[in-house]
TrEMBL record:
The keyword Membrane applies. GO terms for molecular function: GTP binding; GTPase activity; signal recognition particle binding. Transmembrane segments: none annotated. Keywords: Cell membrane, Cytoplasm, GTP-binding, Hydrolase, Membrane, Nucleotide-binding, Receptor. The lineage of its organism: Bacteria, Bacillati, Cyanobacteriota, Cyanophyceae, Pleurocapsales. The chain holds residues 199 to 499 of 500 of the full protein. It comes from the Bacteria. Coiled coil: none annotated. It catalyses: GTP + H2O = GDP + phosphate + H(+). This is Signal recognition particle receptor FtsY. The gene is ftsY. It is a peripheral membrane protein.
């Protein structure tokens, strides 16, 4: 992870350490920190919170450089943990003995299909049986791509090759297959068309209705896949999804390719959603359950 966050570390952390290590924050220091955080796409809200909290503490007592960095870490962890409060362990943990259904949403290109493949792999590795429903029926290529990831991870894929297939029908078939095979986790690839908010909303609502009807006992998660390289722009997309889908968490991808890793803090602060997984690479192993401790340590150590 440390390596994956290399770009963000280099741009943000070394400089931040130097400034914070100088003692009480004067006006120049505050402005420098502000600029660094905004540059890493931490966002205005989280940046304000970080600086005012840090400043209050440094006014109270002079902290040695290492102490100031440790305190900064607690502020950062606190931001990431707040939306996780009621969620318990952020590890990869589908519930035992019931069907878990995870809906993955996100705009095309953010890494949704890749994430599904990685999640399927993680599931199998962790001893959960898994099935994928290819319900992004709008793009023919999407179904093919999901199948490739299904093969890679050794996971069966439920798809309906017909033209204009109803995504909800694929979800229905997926649930039926999952129930008859006693599957632990059904991963659902959904369409990510933002251009037509109303369609998207209706499509997701219909999928939800099918789930409520056919798998009322299932534990449903709705995960938004966000591309970290898009920084604050990605967050704007996220807001649209947050309006139409009942999101329960975020998967942050492509952290390896960006200096905007600070967007993790903006996600937590602005969207009030827990980050559940992070992707830092194109390979099947490059996804891990999110831990605020691990993330902040990787960033600031
Ligand atoms: P989708 O359109 O949202 O399904 O996106 P894809 O899963 O097809 O991914 C789009 C591109 O992003 C592909 O080239 C992936 O290899 C790449 N990608 C996905 N996740 C990551 C990641 O964590 N790191 C990097 N560097 N690339 C990624």
């Amino acid at each position: 992870l440390r390596q994956g966050l290399g770009k963000t570390r280099r741009s943000l952390v070394n400089q931040l350490k130097a400034i914070v290590g100088q003692g009480p924050l004067n006006r120049d220091a505050v402005m420098e920190i502000e600029a660094l955080l905004l540059q890493a796409d931490v966002g205005l809200e989280a940046t304000d919170y970080i600086i005012s909290t840090l400043q209050n503490r440094l006014r109270e007592e002079a902290l040695p450089p290492e102490g100031a960095i440790e305190y900064l870490k607690t502020i950062l962890r606190d931001i990431l943990d707040r939306p996780l409060k009621n969620l318990g362990d952020p590890a990869f943990a589908p519930e035992k003995d019931i069907l878990n259904i995870w809906l993955l949403t996100g705009v095309n290109g953010v890494g949704k299909t890749t994430t599904i493949g990685k999640l399927a792999h993680l599931a199998q590795k962790s001893g959960y049986s898994c099935l994928i429903a290819a319900a992004d029926t709008f793009r023919a290529a999407a179904v093919e791509q999901v199948k490739v990831w299904g093969e890679r991870s050794g996971t069966p894929v439920i798809a309906n090759p017909g033209k204009n297939t109803d995504p909800a029908a694929v979800v229905y078939d997926g649930i039926a297959a999952a129930q008859s095979r006693n599957i632990d986790l059904l991963l659902v690839d959904t369409a990510g068309r933002l251009q037509n908010k109303k369609n998207l909303m209706e499509e997701l609502a219909k999928i939800r209705r099918i789930i409520d009807k056919k798998a009322a006992d299932a534990k449903v998660e709705s995960l938004l896949v966000l591309d970290a390289t898009l920084g604050q722009n990605g967050l704007r997309q996220a807001q649209v999804f947050a309006e139409v889908a009942k999101l329960s968490g975020v998967v942050l991808t492509k952290l390896d390719g960006t200096a905007k890793g600070g967007v993790a803090f903006a996600v937590a602060q602005q969207l009030n959603l827990p980050i559940r997984f992070i992707g830092a690479g194109e390979g099947i192993e490059d996804l891990r359950p999110f831990s605020s401790y691990e993330f902040v340590e990787a960033l600031l150590n």
